[in-house]
Every structure is written in C-alpha cells, then in structure tokens.
Amino acid sequence: MAEPTNTPMPPGTPVRSLSPEPALPSLIPDASKFLPAHLRTSSGGNAAAPPKRPIVLHIGDEIKYNPKTYAEFSTAFEVVRPSAAERDRPEFIRALKERRWGDFSAIFRPFWGTGGEMGRWDAELIDLLPDTVKVFASAGAGFDWADTKLLGEKGIIYCNSGLAAAEAVADFAVAMIISTFRHLPWCISAAVFSPTSSDPNTPSTSAEAFQTCHARATAVSHNPRGHVLGLIGFGNIGQQIAAKLGHPAFGMRIAYYDVERKPVDLETSLSATFHPTLTSLLAASDCVVLATPASPDGKPLITASTLAAFQRGTRFVNVARGSLVDEEALADALDNGTLSAAALDVHADEPRVNARLVEMARALLVPSSPTTGRGASGPGPGRVMLTCHNAGGTVETHIGFEELSMRNILAVLKGGKALTPVNLGYLKQGE
Fold first, then answer.
1. CA–CA dist 421, 71 (Å, integer)
2. φ, ψ of residue 352 in degrees (nearest 5)
3. Which intervals of the chain are annotated as region Disordered (predicted)?
C-alpha cells in the first residue's frame, strides 16, 4: 500500500522529521472524562468506584523503538492487541460486531507495514466502531486507505505521522530531483553494464557503455540552480524540500500549489511563490514534485490532461501516492518528450511497477535528441528512476511514527488537542 506525504505543519514546529520537541505530558490521564456514562455512576450515595482505564486497540506489530514511552502508555491505558488472525477483515468485522475488545477509546497503529490486514477503513468498518472511539492514530503520512471524512463525521479524529517522515522523504526527494537533472540511472547502470542484448542500439561491451555515457550524458544534463522547482503540496515535506533545494543551497526557484495558501512569512522565509491553480504551477515549472497526500476529489492529479499543461521537457518526481498518477499517461509523456525525465518512489499498483516505466528505466539507448526528446529507437537512457517506496524508510522515521502516534492518543484522551490531525473539518458538530 502506497504512502504519500504531506501533513500541515503545526505553527512553530521545527523543520525536523522527529516528533515534536516539548516534553511528553503526564501519561496518566483523568480517565473518567472519556468513559461511557454507565461506567462513571456511583451506587447508594457511596463514592464512585475507581474508573477503568480507557481501552486502546493496538493493531499491528509490537513497539520496537520506544519501550519506555510505551510502558507509560500501557500504564495510562488498557492496551488490547488483536492477533494477526483477528486482523483479517472477515474476523475483524466479526470481532467488532461482538464488541470483543469492549468499548475502546482509541485505535493505535504504530507501523505502516503491519496493522492494515483488515484492508480499507470504509463505512463497513467505521460504522461498527463503538461510539467511545475518539482518535485513530497511525504511522505513515498517507491516509487514502481510511475514509477520514466518515471518521470525522462519527466524531473520530484521525492523526497521521507525516511529521515524523518529513525529513527522510525530503532527503530522498532531493536525490530524485537531482537524478532528473543529471540522469543518474544512466550514469550508474553504464558503469556496471553487462552486455546481454543483441539490440543494435545497446552498447556491446561494458567499456563502450561507460565511454558512451561519459561522452554523451553531458548534452542532456543540467545544474538544478536557477530552474523552477514546482511543488504540488506545501506541507512538512514540501517545505523541507524547498529549504534543501532553494537559496542558498542548490539555488532553485521555489513555486508551489496547495489547496490552502501558506502564511506570507513562511513563503518569504523559503522564497516560495504561490500559484493559485495547478495549471499555472505546471506551466511555470522545470521540475514538478508531487508531495501531497491526496487530490481534493480523490482522483489522480497527474493525467493526460494535466500533463498537457507541462512545459515541454519538464522533469517529474513522485514521493506522494502512486494512485495520484495515471502511469500510462506518464509513460506517454516520457515517450513523446513532454517530460524529459521522471523519478518515482511510489507506484499505483504496488508491489507491481508499470511495465512501460520499467522498460524505460532499464534502457541503455543513445541519448535523447534536443528537438524530439527521443533516442534512436525510443526514449533516451537514464530518463526514469524507479525505487521501492523507500523515501520515508529510515530508523529515525519509525521511531517518530511510534512516538507521535502515542502522543496523539495521549493528547486527545486527556482532553487536549491532537498534534497532527488531518480531518478536523469533518468532525460532527459539538466535538
């Protein structure tokens, strides 16, 4: 399942990938305020019995990186962890109908790779959640696997952990952006080339592949400095990419499109220019980076129609969601020269990668013509970099996933504000 990246950055948050810096609040909440009414009643005028701890449903693997925090978390809450068999969708549905885990108050998913065995959180699952659930805190930045609108309408705050992944994803995006300017796949593959093809356009020896790349890559390579970097999405990750590649570092000119314009002081600090429409951004950019968790209407953002708005020869990078890109249309754009290069970390049908893009990534053909954007028998070499959804994958990211998910639950169940909510606009009235 793909994982996009873009969480609105809370005011004053440092531009870092780990969870917020302030000291962790007291981990022993006043449990009585979020228990069902029948558990808060007293009998015969006597003092009420000690309130039960709120139940947190922990889906997925055990905690790996924050045992001390988790020990305190487990003291504050009764943590219930369904087995792998219970997380299979039919059994998970059965368990919810049976109220097998009681009237739990939160759902906790600290790892992106596990805890999603029940599949998409749609109406079938959400309608079965007890009314006591107040917060769903998950690892990862993406949330297209959960109907956050429906969760909000049920009174459940969904919190992602994009803040924890921001630095790792931004670093990876920098490498991919540089790749589109410097054709790194060609340079790397030519150095280790082993001839296996009878294609006349394929170099016959590793030495020839090396020499061909050394001689010809220059004609299609450029410095990023002075080029316009267009960011679709300007949350944590978009802002960090801008900080790393703008002035004074790489000297790129930063432009962005987002559903909500950022404060002027933030734009000024990053020398970023806002574009009110996606079409405007695409027309102005030399390299476009997709860094948003979802499109406003749930449909792909990069299609044949939007690709028509790109400048000819533009570069494209996706570190967001594979589902946001029509990959066949993208392959067409690379084939006809609309795009000069692309780098994709996420894919529409993971773990399967689009066959046409794979073929382009493997190609060792003569370089693209400056006028046609094509080589002797197709797109030029080194035009496509493909990776395996690796952008956010660092130990530091996963430390942050765990910590931030726990902090979100602690904040909400103590009656405070969530740290990284994504669906507050959908919360039912009175929440």
1. 24
2. -85, 140
3. 1-22
Give residue 48's pLDDT band: very low, low, confident or very high (50, 70, 90). low
Q: The dihedral of CA 134, 139, 142, 145: what is its sign? A: negative
CB 19 within 8 A of CB 163: yes
Return phi, psi of residue 181, to 5°.
Answer: -85, -30
- pLDDT digit string (tens) for 271-293? 999 999 999 999 999 999 999 97
- Give me the pLDDT at residue 109, please: 97
The residues near 339 (Cβ < 8 Å, ≥ 6 apart) are 307, 310, 313, 314, 315, 316, 330, 333
pLDDT tens digits, residue range 179-223? 999 999 999 988 887 666 556 555 567 888 889 899 999 999 999
| Count of beta carbons in the 10 Å neighbourhood of residue 396 | 15
Give the separation between CA 419 and CA 407, rounded to whole angstroms: 8
What is the DSSP annotation of 233-255? Answer: --SHHHHHHHHHHSTTTT-PEEE
Fold of 166-386: Rossmann fold (3.40.50)
Average of per-residue pLDDT across 15-25: 34
Paired tokens of 361: 């990534």
Nearest to 157 by CA among 430, 431, 400, 421: 421
189, two tokens: 């593959």
Q: Spell out the domain ranges in the chain.
A: 31-164+394-426, 166-386
Q: Please name every residue paired with 325 in a beta bridge, in sequence order, or none if there are none.
A: 302
Measure the CA–CA gap between 74 and 398, rounded to whole angstroms. Answer: 19
Q: Does domain 31-164+394-426 have CATH number 3.40.50.720?
A: yes
For Cα atoms 142, 147, 153, give the angle at the middle one, nearest 5 degrees: 125
Residue 75 in 3-state DSSP?
A: helix
In this structure, the number of other CB atoms found within 10 A of the CB of residue 98 comes to 8
